[in-house]
Fold these 4 entries.
Entry 1:
Amino acid sequence: PDPEPAGSDQLAMAGMLAAGIAHEIRNPLTSLRGFLQLLRADKQRYSDIMLAEVDRINEIVNELLRLADPKPREPEQKPLLPLVRSVVTLLEGQANLMNVRMRIETDEAAEVAVVVCEENKLKQVFINLVKNAIEAMPDGGEIELHCFCEGKRVCLQVADRGSGIDVQLADRLGQPFVTTKENGMGLGLMICRSIIEGHKGDLQFDGREHGGTVVTVSLPILR
Ligand code: ADP
Ligand code: MG
């Protein structure tokens, strides 16, 4: 039998997904293209970097395929910290290329805090936030990932020393296609917002005293 025609909701979702995928794949592609141009000058070094970038595209595509898994998933009970660690591992290559270091700090309670979540979606949130932090520091620096518990919530703060969020953007953050980047799609924070809402969590953006941004995700603790 013919598949049912897609409703406008489904079309909108497909468009959003396609845009999201394009967004994720474009960064390594841009980098590959640049290194291809440089390759003429210095073969060995640049081909190593290109290989690493190809591996990264692969990783991203694998992540996306996992995210796009159409099977409806039951929310799972997961400790938050290993999830944060896996995101750091995933983005280490990109951070290194930008001279950015990532440091995880956690209090005792957050060390074992469990949340009810769809793991891959939550991962996508942390990936988007850490990527924004990396992209905010073109001259490199340190990103602190701070996990702590506050009452019945566990929080993850992603703190960078970048440019800080443009004040004109403040009340439009999380709306689609809001971006200040030449190659940006402005979808990352929208995706973060909708996923965090779906997890009964909260997302907050603050400036830092000596420059930079702190993004705080808070989620209900299961135990
Ligand atoms: P994109 O990264 O494609 O631009 P996002 O939705 O992830 O889209 O972010 C939207 C905008 O919010 C960015 O273009 C940037 O201006 C701002 N922004 C987000 N995170 C940060 C950050 N850590 N530091 C400075 N600006 C940020
Ligand atoms: Mg982004």
Note: Strands lie at 76-79, 100-106, 114-117, 141-150, 153-159, 202-207, 213-220.
Entry 2:
Amino acid sequence: RPAQDSGPGRPAPSVVAHRGASEDAPEHTLAAYRKAIEDGADALECDVRLTADGHLVCVHDRRVNRTSNGRGAVSALELADLATLDFGSWKATPDEPEAPDRRYADPERTGVLTLERLLELVADADRRVELAVETKHPTRWAGQVEERLVTLLDRFGHTARPGRPAAERPAVRVMSFSARSLHRLQLAAPEIPSVYLMQFLTPRHRDGRLPSGVSIAGPGIRILRAHPEYVERAHRAGHRVHVWTVNEPEDVALCRDLGVDAVITNRPKQVRKQLGLG
Ligand code: G3P
Ligand code: CA
């Protein structure tokens, strides 16, 4: 990534918008990702799940209940079912108080977002924007999530092919808590960097080592609060460190001071400002 200056001797972490600018707009909607791009995010994070008819959609939870006016598991619904739901009106913001008819007013704020549409948004951006795609509960699907993901990434030019120079490939990375999912992705597209997400620091990873083939460590911020030495260990082992979910100013400062490579945050604008980038 390009070096960014943030003061006392270290480059600032790059800023990744978690589920889009999800503090200001409903998570995983086109509106949230447009806002993240406007806010200057270096990269966009999204979670993906497979629908019953095999489409990858950007939804965090197993069920749609929390973030839409529908009910049920994403895996049991078809894309056409999801397209009838409102994924935005659950979230009120100071400038847009809750309005029951808002879904008719702004489909970008309320429609279900497919990964395909998000890839289009990234491709059409007027500057380079990276994408970090997280596979959710991939073990249920015996490889289908990864297969579909690589097919889509390939279609959008993110995989290596003869005659497709690496420098021209937009930067996409894949993330997962599942080493098995990352392994499948590496087999299909070894050129795409992978991020191993960790909720806890297990003895196996304490020294900075990661599952084979993984280049980036993805610890939760709680790991860094308890084990700040982890960043240096991971760096010494040759890995970059991308930390989630970094929203509080003291956590942003901790990541900056430890030399973290990327912070994944719901508030890209405020974090960039704190880092002296915006
Ligand atoms: O970016 C990683 C982070 O998103 C993992 O946690 O639950 O927000 O998907 P979660
Ligand atoms: Ca995620």
Note: The chain has one domain: 14-62+113-274.
Entry 3:
Amino acid sequence: MATEAFAPAKINLTLHVTGQRADGYHLLDSLVVFCDVGDTLSAAPADRLSLRVDGPMAAGVPDDASNLVMRAARFLDLSRGAAMMLTKRLPVASGIGGGSSDAAAALRALSALWDVPLPSPEETLPLGADVPVCMTPRPQRIRGVGARLCPVPDLPTADLVLVNPRLPVPTPAVFGALTRRDRSPMPEELPRWPDAAALAEWLGTMRNDLEAPAIRVQPAIADVLRVLRAEKPLHAAMSGSGATCYALLPAGQGAGLAETLKAAHPGWWVASGAILRDTG
Ligand code: ATP
């Protein structure tokens, strides 16, 4: 029986860079959510392991052993086969964790297909710093290099509109341009936000420390933020290392803004969806 798993976009609502380890890994403190926009990974029984990639964002995505989906399959079981199909809808190298979410989806689909236990989030860290958080697509706080996870319950319902200027931004270049000296984390205790407006007000007091360096690497990010903020959402900021930016809106209002932006900026990738609040 074939299995299928959804790989939702991962959005860093905040991203505080709190330090750097001697081995070069940056230490983070980030509020992460997932949005019901994403890639799909299906896996069917087969003698050998294979991957095909299709979908609107498939161009340039490797279908060989370097794809994170193939690496995840080999991580789960070195010897078994499966015919995998990845439908790519998330832009590549865009700060919304597409590859990491695909890897987590592959682990979910293949553990069901092969009837082998799913690794714990922490165990998946060798596949990439963002893979552990993608193992359970629900609001979480991540600290350290990415494996210190803490669920954030009771996040208010809200929509996100995601906008990418279709310009890939390599994460190492953005960390290389980071000069900020404020390394303070988020408050130890996160507040309980009664609604999306309260969450947005709090987000306005937090940071994405990668936003300024990402704009230095790719100035078009500043244009995206200007356009989003002109629409007066509850809040707008960049996700991860960019270039994707998000606008936070009350539940049900994302699709309308997405249509407006698509019409005004046909060259941009624009998507909208609700924040995923359950483990799914
Ligand atoms: P993050 O938010 O975790 O920094 P990202 O969204 O910026 O991630 P990805 O889309 O995961 O970046 O792509 C990063 C690189 O990984 C690309 O250069 C791409 O060639 C490679 N890659 C490997 N597997 C995949 C995959 N399944 N989907 C997308 N990119 C992949």
Note: The radius of gyration is 18 Å.
Entry 4:
Amino acid sequence: MIPVASETAAKAAPVKQTPVEQAHAALRGVTCVYHSQGRSLHALGPVDLSLARGEFFSVVGPSGCGKSTLLDILAGLNPPQTGTAHFEGKSILGVPDGVGVVFQEDASFPWLNVHDNVAFGLRRAGVDPTEIKRRVDYAIGFMGLKDFAASYPAQLSGGMRQRVCIARTLVLQPRLILLDEPFGALDQQTRLIMGDELLRLWRETSATILLITHALDEAAMLSDRVGVMSTRPGTFIDIIETGWDRNRDSRVVSKPHFGDITARLWEKLRVEALKMMSTREL
Ligand code: ADP
Ligand code: MG
């Protein structure tokens, strides 16, 4: 039996949230409406979310429901139209110090080798060269890139290039790591391995992680909690606690409980995906 924070799938039923003051990052009543070519599009919310310090939280939801919009708001890349967004008790205004973002797109710089890609952000921030060397060597070693420090992205596999992007975030020593479908372009086996890498990084850094993924198995395997979003404008219709041990890895996929979690996620998402199809938005 899976413990769930909310038993109701009704859109209006609020999922219970930790108070803003106790949360590491929090959204309250956040909405986002895009205006383009004279039309308004209500993309997100109102949405509430509380991330506990050090938790691994994943978000799943139908395509176009506002997942990336939610992540951009936490990253300070996109201000909410209404509601509030907080990180470590402060309002999010611009990219907050201590927040790192990893995107699906291969965001490595093709003209820089792995070492210089990883050092890029620190150099730009004017960090002391000795400190840069220390942090870059650590991140490159941690992500298994030591033998590739002098290689260029074009010489690496997709999985290795995404490791470079994670290392680039890791050197910034983020306390909150936001990942937007980071493994979406990778094959299934590489994704499972990258999931293990991400769990190792999460344990090592004690960072809070928010992962957006379209892969239900990824969400079920990696997370402490999985938030399921409705069709656009996205809100949380359910939050499922997985109950995994902190020392978990990809082998949890063989446990019966893993099947229970993915079944529950699909039960919720299927309804939303069908709604989406009926509006021809897939
Ligand atoms: P998801 O990540 O869940 O697929 P997004 O947050 O990217 O969804 O987008 C939510 C909705 O907002 C989609 O319908 C998308 O087309 C629209 N959208 C996203 N960004 C913009 C933008 N800059 N201008 C106009 N519409 C946008
Ligand atoms: Mg997206």
Note: The radius of gyration is 19 Å.
